[in-house]
Each structure stands twice: as structure tokens, then as C-alpha cells.
């Protein structure tokens, strides 16, 4: 009489058991972290497209659109609502990074804590986006919205870096040069300052984010000359950022820093060179929409590259030596001890044999 009930329990227990036994490798989790980083970068770019097409107030309310769960058939409304809809897959990517951190083997607590920042950050960013819409795209909200996106990208990058670098018991890490280390940290700070100045330039520029005629609060502390003043300050920070990157690259080459650090700094210098050309051209051509979007894309890539350089320099070169020989192995093979001494792999704390 109880057989059908017992059978249903067994059928329910099997998927639960499979779920408990599900694990992923460090390489698989690293790919998950990269997907989360890519998703968070993508939504920054789609958000920039919303602003540059004048669709920021395409849906004047939030989270609904004109009081409904779908947009009207108007270009700006569809663009704005599509960007909001993209939050769903981005949230899933961020949530997957956190949940799968618990299923990664070997388990690492530092990854679960870092990964939790991603779904929490996406939630906070969605709320901040709603406040930006409710604030009618006031420049303070818009600048905060973009700045928070950069912080979220930083958290995602740190997760990628740590997930792709497994601590090893027999690894020997060379301490990074102190000057190079502080230089890499300063480079990240200069990058953040340059990007923040860029958000101020956008706040004073022609791309307010709304349709023509919509009243939107703009940055006007210098009157009609505000945009030129802010753009020139942004350019000065960018030049300083570029010079610092080149100087740090030369210093890393002189010190023969690890190949990872040299590649990262080379990427920063190359991206900043391209960004400088794009910035100059867009200024001379009166800030066309397409070039401004490319400028935002390059800003994201420069930011991630600067974070990469800081991570690579901070970690320093790592070499992995052979495992120390046990006393039994030395006794069985008399030549093993001499080989280990020559290779520098003999455990200095092992008791001396009689």
C-alpha cells in the first residue's frame, strides 16, 4: 500500500543525490568567472548605447515601462527596456559564479566570498539604475551608476584572477619589487581618476541620455565652457595615466619582471595609445555617437588591463619545485638525496640521518 509513496521518494532522492555530488574543476570554474566578467562588461556597453541613443528615459518609470511589464512599440522605449531585460542573464551569470563556487573542488572559501559580491553588486546596480531613471538622468546619478559599474568589474576581475591561480603548497613566490608594486597600485588609482573625469565630461557633453527637449540636469559649473574645461582635465589625467603606464612598463622590463606582468603592462600601454587616438578624433569631430561608444568600450578594456597589471605585479613570479623527499625514499635510493640537494629541493627541517 505504501509502495507508490516509497517509489516517489526514491525518484525524488536520485536527483537530489546527483545535485549533492555535482562538482566542477578549477578550470571549469575559471571559465564561469570569465563569463561573469564578460556579462558585466557587456551590460556596461549596452547601458552606454541607451544613453548615446537618447533612450535613457524611454521608459519614464521603473521597473515597469509606462506602468506595464513590456514597452510600447517606440524605439527609445524598446532600447531602454531591452537593456533592463539584459539584467536577467547578467544576474544569472553573477549568481552562477557564486553558487558554483561552493561546488568547486577543491573548495576555496575566498572564492565564495568574492563571488557573492557579484550578485549583490548586480542587485545594487539595478536599484541604482532605477534611482537614476527616477532622478530623470541627473548627472550625479549617472556618474555614480557608471562608477559603480567599474567597481563591479574590479570585483569580477579579482575573482577571475584568484580562480585561475591555485595556491600550491610547494610554490615559491618571489616578492615583487616594492617600487613596481606601488607603481601598479598607483596605475589603478590613475585609471579610476581618469574614468571618473570621463564621466564628468559626459555629464557636461551633448549626450545627456534623453530625447531632445527633455529637461535633464547637466554639469554647468563653468557655464557654456564647462564641457571644454572638463574634457581638457580628463585629457590631462589620461596623459598622466599613459605616461605612468609607459614608465611602469619600462621599469618592469628593466627589472625582468614576470612575463605575466610584462604582458599586462604592454596591453595597458597599447590600449591607452588607441584610446588616446579615439579620444582626440572624437573631440575634433564633435563627439559622434559611434566614436563615443568605442571610447567607452576602450575605457572598460583599459580598466580591466590596469587591474590585470596590478594583479600580475602583486602576485610576482611563482615557481613550483619538486616535493621534498621523505626519509624512506632517501634510504631506498642513496643517489636521491644528492640529487635533491643539487636541485635545492631537500627539506631543511628534516632530521639528519645518522
Would you mind describing this structure in some detail?
α2 (26-52) runs antiparallel to α6 (139-163). The chain is flat. With 354 residues, the protein is mostly helical. The protein has two domains: 23-166, no CATH class; 177-319, no CATH class. The protein has twelve helices and two strands, in the order ααααααβααααβαα. The chain has helices spanning 3-21, 26-52, 75-85, 87-103, 109-134, 139-163, 178-204, 226-254, 259-284, 289-315, 327-332, 334-343, and strands at residues 171-173, 318-320. The protein has a two-stranded antiparallel sheet with strand order 1-2.
Task: List the SSEs and their pairings.
Elements: H1 3-21, H2 26-52, H3 75-85, H4 87-103, H5 109-134, H6 139-163, E1 171-173, H7 178-204, H8 226-254, H9 259-284, H10 289-315, E2 318-320, H11 327-332, H12 334-343
Helix pairs in contact: 2-3, 2-4, 2-6, 2-10, 4-5, 5-6, 6-7, 6-10, 7-8, 7-10, 8-9, 9-10
Short description:
The protein is mainly α and 354 residues long. Helix content is 71%, strand content 2%.
Which terms would index this structure?
2 domains; 2% strand; mainly alpha; two-stranded antiparallel sheet; 354 residues; flat
